[in-house]
Amino acid sequence: MRGAGRLTVPARVIDPDAYLDLKGTKDLDRRGLAILRELYRERERLALELDRPPFMVLGHDTLVLLAARRPLDTAKLLEVPGCTVKRGAPLRGPDPRRHCAGLEVPEEELPVRTPKPRPHVPGPVRRRIENLRAWRTKAAAALGLDPGFFFPQRLIDRLAADPRRHRSAGPHRGVRRWRAEVGGPDLLQVLRAA
Question: Domains of the chain, with CATH numbers?
Answer without folding.
Answer: 2-109 (1.10.150.80), 123-193 (1.10.150)
